[in-house]
Design a protein that fits this description.
Blueprint (H helix, E strand, L loop, with lengths): L31 H14 L5 H9 L7 H5 L14 H12 L2 H14 L3 H25 L7 H8 L2 H34 L11 H4 L2 E3 L4 E3 L2 H15 L1 H27 L15 H11 L5 H6 L8 H30 L10 H8 L3 H36 L17 H17 L2 H4 L5 H20 L16 H11 L18 H15 L3 H25 L21
Antiparallel strand pairs: 1-2
Helix pairs in contact: 4-11, 4-14, 4-16, 5-12, 5-14, 6-12, 6-14, 6-19, 6-21, 7-8, 7-19, 8-10, 8-16, 8-17, 8-19, 8-22, 10-16, 10-17, 11-14, 11-16, 15-16, 16-17, 19-21
Organism: Zea mays (Maize)
Family: Belongs to the amino acid-polyamine-organocation (APC) superfamily. Cationic amino acid transporter (CAT) (TC 2.A.3.3) family.
Keywords: Membrane, Transmembrane, Transmembrane helix
Length: 570
């Protein structure tokens, strides 16, 4: 007797359909009516359960995406298109990072940390390198599916943890986009005011922001306009967006290198003493502030479905972009704090003011161009990442399916892209960025810590490892976690190893989590309130919507809506 294809539905609930061809390398996408039917069946089967037991059963679901399952992506003409090469991915990561840290945050942190702001960037960069090693392994193991930290958490832990990670990350991305858009608007106005005719003639509410109600509301007209333009570029196509990012990122790197070489000759080493005027604690606190400047490699992981050879190129893009950013940040911090005493650095445009103080007026013009290019790419990539995360959750059913719709000809998630652009535009046009900056980095630290834990969990659960009995593995219990980590040293080899493996597992992920938690402990009080309140809201949203609408986690349903991987990456 011929066996029917595997289905989530019982025999009596299946509708007559034409027989599909047997398994091929590229499967066709699951029709939307079949997905709806499966969802309706699951709703009816859990209708009689008590709410708490049904909630727990849904919350503990995992996404079974092994290396082979994720590589067996469907090939359709209506999904995301694989157009990004390894250079595009490296520049994507650099484009997301270089800009905010150099042109916005440097002066603010230097006022408290002094020249020790360099150490702040080194500490944040070191934590990110450890995290990047974990990201690189997971990106290589799950190379075909969009989602980044959300996807890895879904595969390693459970559904509700993945949703919590998404909400924490998304708030960071939304706030970061609004902050960078306002900074970009301010730099753009300063660039225009280099023209004598416009000097002092542009109202503050156009680009610099005009505050009302004690500074809680700050009107900025130009920032939303810039967000609308970048959103339109991203909706038009990933190839076009990548071309814009490549051009502006290359320009930005060249300008940063020129600035460093020009500033070296103006350095006064006496400005570096004292190096940490307010102590090491201010340096660590500064590291938590600048931490979000390294989130570029996060963007690389979220481009998995649009990379040509993801299993090989994603790890290169993640690590290559991060190392380049660390070197450039440290060089610029040393130069500007050596050129001008840290007490004289401005908060809004520290680089331009430092060179202006040395009489290098022509460099300030170059800095303005670099600032506009840098903040533009940071904002462009940030909006790109947000839309892909919304796209992943919409496809999994944790958010409305409208977020999962892909334009049939442009091959971009237009609805998701428009949504994130609108949210950022409202925030950038109305809110005081200085108040919002106090609650940054919570989502990034949370996501990075969970991703590091995912490496340990997925290696522990890998089917090819030996099953030695070591008792109950409790992540939250420190002593048992240490004992299990030693045992993991002898059982960390995959049956189907990824293209890149994080070295020193479990030591590197454990140090990564510890480093992240140290940074987390230094956050402002408002950030802790935000973490708790947002987590409660996320649980409520999941309880009311997500648990009932999530698409069943099966290999049949988890490979829909995106193009297949080339054989080299499979």
């Amino acid at each position: 007797m011929t066996q029917e294809p595997t289905s989530l539905l019982p025999i009596w609930a299946r509708t007559p359909t034409t027989r599909r061809p047997k398994s091929r390398r590229h499967q066709l996408p699951i029709p939307s009516d079949a997905m709806e039917e499966a969802r309706d069946h699951r709703l009816s089967s859990t209708a009689g359960r008590p709410f708490l037991s049904g909630f727990c059963a849904a919350a503990l679901r995992r996404k079974p995406l092994g290396a082979r399952a994720s590589a067996a992506a469907a090939a359709t003409g209506e999904g995301l298109v694989r157009q990004l090469g390894v250079l595009d991915l490296v520049l994507l990561g650099i484009g997301a990072s270089i800009g905010a840290g150099i042109f916005v945050v440097t002066g603010t942190v230097a006022r408290d940390a002094g020249p020790g702001v360099t150490i702040s960037f080194v500490l944040a960069g070191a934590a990110c390198v450890l995290n990047a090693l974990c990201y690189a392994e997971l990106a290589s193991r799950l190379p075909a599916v969009v989602g980044g930290a959300y996807l890895y958490t879904y595969a390693a832990f459970n559904e509700i943890t993945a949703f919590l990670v998404f909400t924490q990350l998304m708030v960071d991305y939304h706030i970061g986009a609004a902050s960078i858009a306002r900074s970009l608007a301010s730099y753009f106005i300063e660039f225009l005011e280099l023209i004598p005719l416009l000097k002092g003639q542009i109202p503050s509410w156009v680009g610099h922001g005009e505050e009302f109600f004690g500074g809680v509301v700050s009107i900025n007209i130009l920032a939303p306009v810039l967000l609308i333009i970048l959103t339109a570029i991203l909706c038009y196509g990933v190839k076009e967006s990548s071309a814009v990012n490549t051009f502006m990122t290359t320009l930005k790197i060249i300008i940063v290198i020129v600035i460093v070489f020009a500033g070296v000759f103006e350095v006064d080493v006496s400005n570096w003493s004292p190096f940490m005027p307010n102590g090491f604690k201010s340096v660590v606190t500064g590291a938590t502030v600048v931490f979000f400047a390294y989130v570029g490699f996060d963007a690389v992981a979220n481009s998995a479905e649009e990379a040509k050879r993801p299993q090989r190129d994603l790890p290169i893009g993640i690590l290559g972009s991060l190392i380049a950013c660390v070197l450039l940040y440290v060089a610029v911090c040393l130069v500007i704090t050596g050129m001008v005493p840290y007490t004289l650095l401005g908060e809004d445009a520290p680089l331009a003011e430092a060179f202006a103080a040395k009489g290098l007026k022509f460099i300030t013009v170059l800095i303005s161009i670099g600032a506009v290019a840098g903040l533009t790419t940071t904002l462009l990539v940030g909006l790109y990442v947000q839309s892909r995360l919304y796209f992943g959750l919409g496809r999994d059913g944790l958010l409305p399916s409208v977020f999962a719709e892909v334009h049939p000809t442009r091959h971009t998630p237009v609805q998701s892209q428009i949504w994130v652009g609108c949210v950022a535009a409202v925030m950038a046009g109305l809110f005081n960025v200085r108040m919002l900056s106090h609650i940054l980095s919570v989502g990034t630290l949370t996501g990075y810590s969970v991703v590091s834990a995912c490496v340990i969990t997925l290696r522990w659960n890998d089917k090819g490892t030996s099953r030695r009995s070591l008792g109950t593995f409790m992540v939250v219990a420190f002593l048992i976690a240490v004992a299990a980590s030693f045992a993991l040293q002898f059982r960390q080899v995959y049956v189907d190893p990824p293209g890149f493996s994080c070295p020193g597992v479990p030591l590197v992920p454990i140090i990564s989590v510890f480093f992240n938690m140290v940074l987390f402990a230094q956050l402002h009080e408002e950030a802790w309130y935000r973490f708790v309140i947002l987590s409660l809201i996320a649980v409520g949203v999941y309880a009311g919507y997500g648990q009932y609408n999530a698409v069943p986690s099966s290999s049949e349903h988890s490979t829909i809506g995106y193009h297949g991987i080339p054989s080299e990456a499979a």
